[in-house]
DNA sequence: CATTAGAGTTGACAATTGTAGCCTGCAGTG
DNA sequence: CACTGCAGGCTACAATTGTCAACTCTAATG
């Protein structure tokens, strides 16, 4: 959950989460391993460690079948949103608007982005 | 600098940076120590370690006088901006606009914020 | 049923981070 | 000028993170 995210998801762990988020169903290690071994070049042991840590942290759930099937406990949106809020707290005095202002002045946004955002805020309420 | 930020500034180190950013002039350890000892409850040794690490990382510069005076090499804006971009890369597929969209839908922004942002984008270009 | 591949578990090890102590030399004070 | 406090530099140590190996036990396969 956004609020009770006890310990952060680390960079390596995030790669596993991303894979789980991209999938509808729970996945067995075999599948997770196949994908990440290829895309990340990680050894099976590494991947198993990351999964275990995510389970310990409570952000991945394991479901017992023949073999465990893993699925995310938090959604990508929940996590992104939590991480974003965390960034805002730490670097923007808790003001989301300061973050956006910073993006606007600092090549963070393309003209297209800005146009789209203008629309977004127009519709918004 | 935004780009060549080799190693990240950690949470504890960030507290030191914030103090330096808030000050015009370079500061001697004495001053840094006074402020952080009080606000953070850190031992002098801890503060000295943090400063050293920041110097090693190249984000704080030391200037020799009787005693070293310390000042930031990167500005707060540069760092915030870098950290924000990093977040966008890691969690929003590199699309700043997705971050903002996420803020808009998810109690991240107050009505006031939204009103202000609407103005911001109106003026913008 | 014996064999084998691999899931799950435990341990490991280096680098980073959070926190702090020790020692030495200098600078300011009486 | 002797004394003392503290800056600077070095060391330390536990927890976390990035990577991975070894071992055990089970399920699938011939």
Let me know the average pLDDT of chain A. Answer: 88
Secondary structure: helix percent of chain A: 55-70%
- Number of DSSP strand runs of chain A: 3
Biggest sheet features of chain A: 3 strands, antiparallel
Order of helices and strands of chain A: HEHHEEHHH
**Biggest interface found:** A-B, 38 and 38 residues
Our count of helices of chain A gives 6
Q: Going across the biggest sheet of chain A, name each strand in turn.
A: 1-3-2
The fraction of residues in strands of chain A falls at 5-15%
Radius of gyration of chain A: 18 Å
Measure the end-to-end span of chain A: 27 Å
Oligomer: homodimer
Low-confidence stretches of chain A: none
General shape of chain A: elongated
Helix/strand structural class of chain A: mainly alpha
Please specify the SSE layout and strand pairing.
2 copies of one chain form a homodimer.
Chain A: H1 11-21, E1 27-28, H2 29-40, H3 44-56, E2 60-64, E3 68-72, H4 76-91, H5 96-104, H6 111-123
Antiparallel strand pairs in A: 1-3, 2-3
The structure holds a DNA duplex (30 and 30 nucleotides).
List keywords for this structure.
homodimer, 125 residues, mainly alpha, 6 helices, DNA-binding
Protein model, in words:
The structure is a homodimer of 125-residue chains. In chain A, helix 1 (11-21) crosses helix 3 and helix 2 (29-40) packs across helix 3. The model of chain A has no long low-confidence stretch (mean pLDDT 88). Chain A is elongated and about 50 Å long. Chain A has helices spanning 11-21, 29-40, 44-56, 76-91, 96-104, 111-123, and strands at 27-28, 60-64, 68-72. With 125 residues, chain A is mainly alpha-helical. In chain A, strands 1-3-2 form a 3-stranded antiparallel sheet. The A-B interface holds A 11, 14, 76-77, 79-81, 83-85, 87-88, 90-92, 95-97, 99-104, 106, 108-109, 111, 113-114, 116-118, 120-122, 124-125 and B 11, 14, 76-77, 79-81, 83-85, 87-88, 90-92, 95-97, 99-104, 106, 108-109, 111, 113-114, 116-118, 120-122, 124-125. Chain A binds a DNA duplex (30 and 30 nucleotides) through residues 7, 10-13, 28-30, 33, 42-46, 48-53, 66-68.
